[in-house]
Design goal:
This protein is α+β, with helices and mostly antiparallel strands and 320 residues long. The protein has 10 helices and 12 strands. Helix 5 crosses helix 7. The two termini are 40 Å apart.
């Protein structure tokens, strides 16, 4: 197998053809990029402002690229079906890691185009590299039914609800950071408040689907004032929505707040005419998975995120 080529200076049509295949795979996961993403990404890759490598479409087609934000990198590997697609995916992922600048401490890489068994094989191979973590995530879905539109019980513990946009972004950021600190999900988001703020800003701005104010809410205590929970919901299609974030203050868990927010949001979605809702959850987040199971969500898809962390390398640990 010949090695991958750098995307810098590559023919535009060659890159766009592979990116169209990637966009199709993302659409199947309801994560399709919007606007002129294909053309813009191909332009960034050709110009070298986005780092990447590819195998030409005439030979099956595959691509990998990454972006850096401060000391954290996010990458993606996409392959098309062929006998050595798993080997190509592993080669491209290793290329993304090996070419990281020294100032970048970690990279998280997603995959598309691999069937489950080949994705597992690639993950197992990559996991042998020191500093590696493999994170499996599940898509869970639930049909909305007429009983979801029935009345809700009182808000737990006499708390209050507020529209999400009436909560400051700083308060949402701090709640989200506290909710996921120490969890597997923290590895995907980052440890810095700026990463949570960026992610939440993208959700509110509609970057991952039109933000549904009517099906998003915050749960708070008035005296002393404290933000204790929130659920953020986006539209994916005219009939399908997604819960993008459910956050509960870690000091107030196991009180039914998460279940209440889910039921509240599903009631709102039913009233808005949506028929289905989905969410993503990490395999390691057993408490969240039990909650989603309890309200009727079922696993429909899985995906792997490969993460490499420089600080988890043996030499890095020894030098501390």
């Amino acid at each position: 197998m010949d090695g991958p080529r750098e995307t810098r200076g590559a023919p535009t049509d060659a890159l766009e053809e592979i990116l169209h295949s990637l966009a199709h795979e993302l659409a199947l996961r309801e994560e399709a990029p919007s606007g002129r993403w294909i053309e813009e990404t191909a332009g960034e890759l050709r110009a070298g402002t986005k780092v990447g490598w590819y195998f030409p479409s005439g030979d099956g087609g595959a691509i990998a690229f990454r972006t850096e934000r401060d000391a954290v990198s996010f990458g993606h590997v996409h392959v098309t079906a062929r006998p050595d697609s798993a080997a190509r995916a592993a080669t491209l992922a290793a290329q993304l890691v090996d070419s990281l600048p020294g100032a970048v401490r970690s990279i998280s890489i997603g995959f598309t185009g691999l069937p489950r068994e080949r994705e597992d094989a690639v993950s197992a191979e990559l996991a042998r590299r020191p500093g590696s973590t493999v994170i499996r995530r599940f898509a869970m879905e639930r049909a909305l039914r007429s009983r979801d539109g029935e009345g809700l019980p009182p808000v737990p513990d006499a708390l209050l609800l507020a529209p999400v946009r009436e909560v400051t972004l700083d308060a949402l950021t701090e709640l989200d950071r506290r909710a996921f600190t120490g969890s597997t999900d923290e590895l995907l988001i980052g440890t810095e408040p700026a990463e949570y703020r960026r992610m939440l800003g993208e959700i509110l701005d509609g970057a991952v689907g039109r933000f549904l104010d009517e099906a998003s809410t915050a749960l708070y205590r008035a005296d002393p004032p404290a933000l204790l929970g929130a659920i953020l919901t986006c539209e994916k299609t005219a009939r399908r929505a997604a819960f993008q974030d459910l956050m509960i203050d870690p000091d107030h868990r196991s009180r039914g707040y998460g279940a209440y927010l889910l039921h509240w949001a599903m009631r709102a979605l039913w009233a808005l005419g949506y028929e289905q809702v989905r969410l993503w959850v990490s395999e390691a987040n057993e408490a969240a998975r039990r909650l989603y199971d309890s309200v009727g969500f079922a696993v429909t898809q899985s995906a792997v995120i490969y993460r490499w962390d420089r600080s988890a390398m043996p030499h890095a640990q020894a030098s501390r």
